[in-house]
Amino acid sequence: MRRNHGEQGTLTLTARPSAEPELLARLRGLTLRCEIQPESASVACPGRERQDFVAELAPLTGAQRAALLGTFALALADPDPKLRLP
Questions:
Q1: Ramachandran assignment for 69, one of left (phi > 0), alpha (psi -120 to 50 degrees), beta (any other)
Q2: DSSP secondary structure of 46-85
Q3: From CA 30, how far away is CA 76, in angstroms rounded?
Q4: Which H or E run includes 17?
Q5: What is the pLDDT of residue 3?
Q6: Nearest one of 49, 46, 2, 10 to 28, comparing CA atoms
Q7: Is the pTM of this model over 0.85?
Q8: Is the model's pLDDT at 43 over the cut of 50?
Q9: I want to staple 78 with a disulfide (CB 3.0 to 4.6 A). Which of 23, 32, 46, 83 is the partner?
């Protein structure tokens, strides 16, 4: 947890998101195998990688999806724009 001093000396605590290494690796793998166009927010894979990935996430319960939010938060903060898109 980090302490940030905001405007006018207020203290804000921000937790660093935790990541699921396997999910983050799968996201990184998609950026290598698929053609990702950040400008148009499109993902085109040579096979069914994107559809299979979505199909794995779809049946998860709300609690299971919530547990993955830290991983997606890290991906969205990654300097690689292709990782921020899938």
A1: alpha
A2: SSSHHHHHHHHHTT--HHHHHHTHHHHHHHHTSS-HHHH-
A3: 14
A4: none
A5: 47
A6: 49
A7: no
A8: yes
A9: 83
